[in-house]
Amino acid sequence: MAQSKNSKKKTTLSTGAGKAVCTFCGGPREGKKVTLTYARGAGWVMIESVPASVCRLCGEKFFTPAVSERILRILGQAPAGARTVTVPVIDFDAA
Ligand SMILES: [Zn+2]
Predict the structure, then answer these.
(1) What is the 12 CA–ligand 1 centroid distance (Å)?
(2) Separation of 13 CA from ligand 1 center, angstroms?
(3) Which of 20, 25, 27, 88 is the one with CA 20 to 30 A from 54?
(4) Nearest CA among 54, 75, 53, 74 for reference residue 64
(5) CA 42 / ligand 1 centre spacing (Å)
(6) CA distance 74 to 59
(7) Which own/partner contact pairs does 15-22 have at CB distance under 8 Å and 24+ positions apart?
(8) 72 φ, ψ to 5°?
(9) Taking the CA of residue 31 as centre, how many other CA atoms within 13 Å lie in the half-sphere pointing to its CB?
(10) E strand intervals along the chain
(11) How far is the CA of 18 from the centre of ligand 1 (A)?
(12) Range of the domain at 70
């Protein structure tokens, strides 16, 4: 009856914001707030403070379905709190 040692199973939920491992490299993931950058039109859009589960080995970011849905919604509209920042772009060969 004491089979708890042998029936040790890891339950991972790919969409869970918990302690699941990276689906690409199997590395440990940790909850973080990240900044995302997307090409949009002629410029870029940055979304700050996005809750994500980030792989500590390869850096791959994972989002809950609710978060990814919201990212798409933000990208599809002009967010009220948006501000414009100037980003220096340096050409590697010219520097
Ligand atoms: Zn990884």
Answers:
(1) 15
(2) 15
(3) 88
(4) 53
(5) 31
(6) 23
(7) 15/64, 15/65, 16/64, 17/51, 17/53, 17/64, 18/53, 20/53, 20/62, 22/55, 22/57, 22/58, 22/60, 22/62
(8) -65, -35
(9) 7
(10) 29-40, 43-55, 61-62
(11) 15
(12) 29-75
Answer yes or no: is 47 within a domain. yes
Look at 55 and 44; give whichever has higher pLDDT. Answer: 55
Residue type (1 letter), 70: R
Domain count, the chain: 1
Confirm whether 88 is domain-assigned. Answer: no
pLDDT of 53-86, one tens digit each? 999 999 999 999 999 889 888 888 765 667 777 8
Percent of all residues in the chain with a pLDDT value above 90, rounded to a whole number: 37
Asked whether residue 24 is assigned to any structural domain, the reply reads no
State yes or no: pLDDT of 30 exceeds 90.
yes
Distance 57 CA to ligand 1 centre (A): 5
